[in-house]
Amino acid sequence: MNSTVNNTINNTSNNANNNANNNAPSAPTVQFADLGLAAPILRAIKDTGYDTPTPIQTKAIPLVLNGGDLLAGAQTGTGKTAGFTLPILQRLTQTRPTNIRAGRPRCLMLTPTRELAAQIKESVDTYSKYLELRSMVVFGGVNINPQINQLQRPIDILVATPGRLLDLHQQGEVDLLGIEILVLDEADRMLDMGFIHDIKKILALLPKSRQNLLFSATFSNEIKKLADRLLNQPDFIEVARRNTASEMVEQSVYRVRQGHKRDVLSHLINQHNWYQVLVFTRTKHGANRLAEKLVKDGISALAIHGNKSQSARTKALSEFKTGNTRVLVATDIAARGLDIDQLPQVVNFELPNIPEDYVHRIGRTGRAGASGGAISLVDQDELKYLKDIEKLIKRTIPTLTLDGFIPPTTIEPEPDRPARRGNHRSTATHNARNKPAQGQRRPQSQRKPNGQSR
C-alpha cells in the first residue's frame, strides 16, 4: 500500500493543483443540492446562508459519500471541515443501527488542538440540527467528569484530541470498537505536536473495517508513512499547491529592531485603524508581555497559549471574534485551527523557526475568497528565517518603509531567542560567555533557558 499512497500523491498532486486553478471560474455553477446530500442537511446548510460549495467541498463530498478512504490536501480556510462533516452526517443517517450503545461512538474525528475540536463540534451541531444524531467533544485542560457523564448515553460522533481520548479509554469510559468512520484532521500538525505515538495507540483500538479520511496541509515523509498505515487505496484530492501561502493574502515585511517591535506594532494598529488583528509570538511569555504592553498603549488585547486555562482561551477567542478585543496575541500551537471569519490582518511579531509555520500563520487570513494582509516585523537576526520562508513559498516578500514612526529614546530588553539551527555551542563555552561579573545580576534575558515555548 505504501507505493500506492506515494504514487497517488506524486502522480496526481500537479494535476489536482492545475484542475483546482483551471476549474476555479466554473465552481459557482455547482450547488450543494447537486452533491447528493439529503434534504435535512441541505436545509441546515441553507440556514447558514451558504448555497455554493468551496472546491474542497465539491471534490470531497461525493467521494466520502461513496464510502472509500480519502487523502486530502487542504489548508485551513478552504472549507474542509464541512467537506467531511456534511457527507459523514449523511452516511451515519443512512446506516444508523437500532442498538447504539452508550460510550460507543460510530464516528471519531481526531484533531490536534482544543480550539479546533470545539469548532468542529460546532460545525457538526450546525449541520445536524435537523437530524437525529448525537455528538460530543472531549479534550484536555478541563474537568474530565462532565465528559464521562456525557459518555453515559449513546453517541454517534465523537470529536476528540488524542490525549484526552486515551485517558477516557484507559478509564473504560469510551469504547472505540464501533467506529465506522475515522477522520484525522490537520494530520501534519498532529505529527508536529508529537501525537504520532498516541495516534498509533488509537488506531490499534479501532475495528479494521472502517472508512478513513486524512486531511493535511502538507505531505511530509511522515505523513506519507501515516497514510500508508491508515488508508486503503484512497482517493486523493488537493485544492491548493502544497506549502504555499494564500494568493489572497498581501504579504509584506518591515525591518525593525527587536527592541522597537512593540512600539512599531502599536503604531501600525493605530495608523491603519486595525480593529481585528491576530499577532503571533514565538513564546508564551512573549505573548503575555506583548498583550500587556498593548493594553498600556490603550489597545485592547488578550493572549492565548498553552499555559492558559481552557476557559481563559475560550473567553479570549470569543472576545476577539465579537470585536470586544482588537488584538489576539497567540503562539503557533494555540492558534492552530482558529476559525475566524473575515479576519483582515495577521502580524508576525517574530518569524517562526519553521518555514511551514509561516504558511499556517498567514492562512488565518485571506480565507474563503476574502482578502487579507500579513505583516512580518523582522529583526536583523531573523533574516535567515525570512530567506527560508521565501524559499518555501517561492516568492520574495516586499519590504516596506515604516512611515511616521518615531523610535523611543529607550529600547526594551530583547526576549529570549531560540538557538539557530546548526548552531551548537558547548555548555562550558555558553556558560563562560553568559556568566555575570561578581556582584552583577544576571540579565533578564538569561534568567530562563533559551528555547521555543508554545
**Rough shape?**
globular
Unreliable segments of 5+ consecutive residues: 12-28, 416-454
CATH superfamily of the largest domain: P-loop containing nucleotide triphosphate hydrolases
Question: Which percent range describes the beta-strand content?
Answer: 5-15%
CATH topology of the largest domain: Rossmann fold
Number of domains: 2
Strand order of the largest sheet: 3-4-2-5-6-1-7
Q: How many beta-strand segments?
A: 13
Q: What is the CATH C level class of the largest domain, in words? A: Alpha Beta
For the record, give the distance between the C-alpha atoms at the N and C termini, rounded to a whole number.
Answer: 36 Å
- Rg calc: 23 Å
Q: In terms of quaternary structure, what is this?
A: single chain
CATH architecture of the largest domain: 3-Layer(aba) Sandwich
Tally of separate helices: 17
The topology string of helices and strands comes to HHHEHEHEHEHEHHEHEEHEHEHEHEHEHH
User: Overall mean pLDDT score?
Assistant: 81
Overall SS class = alpha/beta
Organism: Ostreibacterium oceani
Region (Disordered): 1-27, 403-454
Motif (Q motif): 30-58
Domain Helicase ATP-binding: 61-237
